[in-house]
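Progress note, project year one: complex with fe (ii) ion.
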Amino acid sequence: MRPSAFCNAGPEHGDAHVSQSRARSALSSASCAPRTPGLAVLSSRAGRLARPQEARMSGCAMRNRHCRGAPLTAELFPETRRCHRIAAGAVLLGGWAQSQALALTAGVDAVIASAPWRHMQTPGGRAMSTANSNCGPLGWQSDALGYRYLRTDPESGRAWPAMPAVFWSLAVAAAEEAGYPGFAPDACLLNRYAPGARLSLHRDQDERDAAAPIVSVSLGLPATFLFGGARREDPCHRLPLYHGDVVVWGGPTRFHYHGVLPVPDGHHPLVGRFRINLTFRKVR
Ligand code: SIN
Ligand code: FE2
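Model obtained:
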């Protein structure tokens, strides 16, 4: 694994180059409850002000019994967002997908034309607040039978639409940037969040390939991503995610809990009143 120009925060890197003062003031520096010591912020590039300058978060809107506590206000400087090491093996590539966003949203439209958005049921029988679809050889499915991957869309009986080339190349490049070369995703789950939609804390554990990372691309409205630990009760980092951000997690964090707080209302020039997330996984 080679250190890249963009990101020095691959899993092979230790906690060198930590900027303590930035780490203290930068975002996720805390969980919903106690502060997490030793948060590393790597590869800062002072002076690059390409993105929303500041993220303020307060409260813990996700009424999760493990994620409550005092309101948190955090600031995240753009230079620390560019490549931010969340934990060993987990990296935020701030704005990584921004230059591809138009092509990515066109890809989303093409996928949705063949496999329209739907609200899947949880195994417990509740409709998910996100709308979903899939592309690639395997599609994630949730219903009364549980969570699993299917080769065909149960709504149409046809194979899931192919993964648009721009999806594939972006996911592979982002994984490599984060220290995971050779990523070959065979599944891409599309999540669409209308304002108020959320994703409760969960682990991605329906995939057979535990060595491959998860690559998660955010488009449209901003949201707060929770990134916890191996146990549900572990403290969560809280990351504001913006249009074009990519989060990659694998290695020691591959099965860590994560979730998305209810998406605040807003309007995005390209995506409208939605947040769309693309999650790339290697299942088989
Ligand atoms: C997921 O965990 O499947 C999606 C995460 C996100 O929407 O950011
Ligand atoms: Fe997930």
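The first strand starts at residue 84 and ends at 87.
Residues 55 and 75 are 5 Å apart (CA to CA).
No further modelling is planned for this target in the current period.
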